[in-house]
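Q: Hi! First time doing this. I have a protein sequence and I read that you can turn it into a structure. Is that right? Here it is:
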Amino acid sequence: MGGCVPVASPLELSETNELNMFPTRSVTINATQSTNFKIAKMKFFLKQNKKKKKKNKGEETVNFVLGNWVRTASIRIGWIDDFNKIVARYVEYICFIKQYNQLKDFQGHSKIVTCAQFSPDGTRIITASYDQIVRIWDVESGQVIQILKGHSHWVLDAQFSPDENMIVSCSRDRTIRLWDMKSGQEIRVLEGHSWNVTRVRFSPDAQMIVSCSLDKTVRLWDVNSGHEIKRMEEHSNMVNDVQFSPDGEMIVSSADDNKILIWNVKSGEMIRELVGHLDCVQRAQFSPDGQSILSLKKLEGHSNVVSDVKFSSDGQAVVSCSLDGTIQLWDTKTGQSIQQLEYNSVSGVDISSNGDKIVAFSYGPTIRLWGCN
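A: Yes, that's right. Below is the predicted 3D structure, encoded as structure tokens:
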């Protein structure tokens, strides 16, 4: 595990949307073969919750690291009587009582797929590819229902708007494109980035778009006019990922400068920097309640690189995928692996809003769908 160093000072999002440092102590837990967890150990960082007015015996906040790559903050638990069992204040994630089974493969792209995401209602999947095309698929039939053409180079990301009326995509051609979902027609092109645009996301109200690029910038755009609203330039290297908080008031970005930065949407100012990663940070996302950030560090050359990670919509589960050809389902109550799915070297994964289905893609033209019994 050379170079794989856990965060020394976890961070939590407080009720005021500020980030506060807190002292920690760490406990190392060796993973067993029964967890299907192929990394040597997990670390649990525990915060002594001294500021609570009413404090139950041993009440602490656990921040756990999956394979020392996936980091979360501010997961509330109850009393820990030993380190083999963690009791969490969460309603049981019903879907994990069932098992996921492979349903179908979706074929249509002619080159490597770069993203695959469910629509908010879970009935469609959007994909993007090196073939310069965005495709919309019907989940039940597996058929393509819309093909979007316009980019002149690899399409690196695409997403449905929250109301499912629009689609946004970005490309190595340095553009962001807005599309009408029903007609498939291009609405407008957003230009300004000077290098590959790596990620685009709608705000929760679908009035803004945030993007990031290899040009080291994070940019905020007005959906209606297509004009750039804010440009955020604190990163010193290529920016890999960007996302709005659930309330739309903050943005989180991660980059090859080893940093995760939190931004205020209204002012465009950086609020805080999350430290701890010692290498490039590939992914960072808010939990559904906005109180946690899940981040992913990619270690170049490692035989078990974790390539993507997602929260379930209720925050009860984490889904991760790896270049070792596996997808792991993790219970956030216990930090334990619930099920392992197998695929080729998996580069991306998503879980539907109701938790019933998982979609993943590898370094090829096909995507695969799993569903609960």
